[in-house]
Write a structure and sequence with these properties.
- This protein is of the alpha+beta class.
- It has a single domain, classed as Arc Repressor Mutant, subunit A (Orthogonal Bundle), CATH 1.10.10.10.
- Helix content is 36%, strand content 23%.
- Strands 1-3-2 form a 3-stranded antiparallel beta sheet.
- A hairpin with a 2-residue loop joins strand 2 and strand 3.
- The longest helix is centred in the middle third of the chain and has 12 residues.
- The protein is globular, with a radius of gyration of 11 Å.
Length: 61
């Protein structure tokens, strides 16, 4: 089952802030593109946790 947050990058950041880390493999394709874009902007990081990739928000400095 895919999690659908919505295409807006702000929605992804809000989800990470309120609910915690996301599993990249559970996101819809449009949300995966949003996460990749946020990674390029330096707003989220991806960590390998066993066979899964976890997406976490970068703590503001």
């Amino acid at each position: 089952m895919r999690i659908r947050i919505g295409k807006k990058q702000r929605a992804i950041l809000l989800h990470l802030d309120l609910i915690g880390p996301l599993l990249f493999s559970e996101l819809s394709q449009s949300d995966q593109r949003g996460v990749r874009s946020l990674m390029r902007q330096g707003k989220v990081e991806c960590f390998r946790v066993g066979p899964l990739i976890e997406v976490r928000a970068v703590e503001p400095a």
